[in-house]
Prior knowledge:
There is one protein chain. The chain has 395 residues and is α+β, with helices and mostly antiparallel strands. The chain has 11 helices and 13 strands. The strands form 3 sheets. The protein has a 6-stranded mixed beta sheet with strand order 5-4-6-3-1-13. The longest helix is centred in the C-terminal third of the chain and has 31 residues, at 265-295. The structure holds alpha-D-galactopyranose (GLA). Alpha-D-galactopyranose binds next to helix 5.
Amino acid sequence: MLLTExxxxxxxQDKYFLKFxxxxxxxxxxxxxxxxxNLIGEHTDYNNGFVLPASVDKAVYFxxxxxxxxxxxxxxxxxxxxYSFSLDDLSKPEKSWPHYQIGIVEQIQKKxxxxxxxxAAFGGNVPVGAGLSSSAALECCLLFALNxxxxxxxxxxSIVRMSQKAENEYVGVQCGIMDQFASAxxxxxxxxxxxxxxxxxxxxxxxxxxxxxxxxxxLVKHSLASSEYNTRRQECEKATAILxxxxxxxxxxxxASPALVKQHKDEMGDVVYRRAKFITEEIQRVQxxxxxxxxxxxxxxxxxxxxxxxxxQNEYEVSCPELDFLVAQTLDDDSVLGARMMGGGFGGCxxxxxxxEGVDAFEAKMxxxxxxxxxxxxxxxxxKITDGTEExxxx
Length: 395
Ligand code: GLA
């Protein structure tokens, strides 16, 4: 039986009461922050470009209450593990799951804001390491909750920026702003076109009557903190520095065209050139894809998704054999409009835009192929687009 979002939240609330007792029943509150998908625009966020994410019906939940002292007690309900620390000692534990929460507390303190201790049980159904950004969901959820509980007066933009900084400064991943933005600003049945430079954003209705979004999870765990993500960032900065010598207005790859990149190919060298080529093309692709969405040309939108995949595979080089295999399986499938790897890369999911009537056969075919090739039962998730970070009222 498939659990609803309410079932999951209630399950975590039950575990909270088992762990902490029922004395806080009057003050305990429940918050939810979703994982995200991204239709198109990959690795463009930290290049000040455009992205097209949405938040989905897989979320992180915090069941949380304030404490009288300055202790923080975190209970990871899914792992059945506890970690405690004091607000005046934010040293980094060896165990990695508390890094996100401590990073949030650190950002609050860096802003000069005051909170007291708290105790929380958290968990949810965002698959970890699958490219749905469970970490951003965790960060946004906790900061949103503390903002409400301690009246910090932070608006959603601040919650997004501080959550991103927690990841950059405490966790140590130089991620862009897309994941936190999508988790906090998501809207039911809409995708968000975000300009990562100005943070201007626009919602576009995503037509889900005839099509479904299906994620196929390679079960290859990406490790974003592993150097490759940060290396890609440095390669983009290198390209920017070279182009800037010729045009002072190029402050990031957002300001460069594929033609300008091509002109300076030799100076960049093969690797940096291919990175910059992909990014400048991808930024343009998001714009074009949005136009297609507005026109209702979903088949052409799907073609852009494939172009993104092949760029990520061959030029940006952040894919992996399992992702490439899954995308290749869809190429001759009439029920699939588009498919590509999603998120940071090196594992995680492919995102597939599939005709509704063909979705059962599609999943069966993908599972069979993956089983035969990798001896792995491929998880497929049909996702719905839901609202972003919010408080949840449970009965
Ligand atoms: C990860 C990062 C995001 C973004 C994507 C790639 O999810 O956290 O900021 O860069 O990779 O598009």
